[in-house]
Amino acid sequence: MSKAFTKESDDAPDDDGPDDAPALPAGQPNYITPAGLKRLQDELQTLLRVERPKIVEVVSWAAGNGDRSENGDYLYGKKRLREIDRRVRFLGKRLEIARVVDPAAQKNRDQVFFGATVTYANEDDDEKTVTILGVDEADLSRGEVSWISPIARALLKARVGDTVELRTPAGPTTIEVVRIEYPG
Known about the structure:
Blueprint: E1 30-32, H1 34-63, H2 72-96, E2 98-100, E3 117-121, E4 127-133, E5 144-146, H3 150-155, E6 163-168, E7 171-181
Parallel strand pairs: 1-2, 4-5
Antiparallel strand pairs: 3-4, 3-7, 6-7
C-alpha cells in the first residue's frame, strides 16, 4: 500500500491533546487560577513564536537536502511539528473554555472552594495538605489536586471540623477537615 494512504502516526492521540492530558467533565468549564491561565498562555505563545518557527526552519533546510525518506533532521522535524501543532490545538481549546477564578478574592473563607489549601486528617490521624486547583495546573507532587479529583470533590463545601467520606479504591474512608487557607 502507498504511504499516502497510511496514518502518519498510529500512536497519536485522537483528541488533539497529549496522552497524559486530564479530561474535563463534559460541558464543564475549565476552572483555572490567574497564575495557571498565564502559564498556559505563555506556553502557547512560546510554542507559536519560538519553537515552531525554529522547527519550520530546520525542516525547510532539511527538505532542501534531497532524499527525505532517510533524512533524520527532516523526519524528526516533521514529527516535532505535529507534536507542537497538537499541543497548540489542545491549549487553544483549553483556553477557550477557561473560566478564571481568583482564590484570593474568595469571601467565604471558612468553607472549602476552588483555590483553597486544605489540611485534613484521616482515620489514623495522619494529616495531609492539598490545594484545589484547575485540571491543567494541578501537580500531585506539589500537593495540588484538580477540582474534579475524588479528594477535592469530597472536601468541597466542607468547613473546619467537618468529617467527609472519601471514596478510594480500597473502599470509603472518613477524613476530617483540620484547616482551610486561601492565598492573599
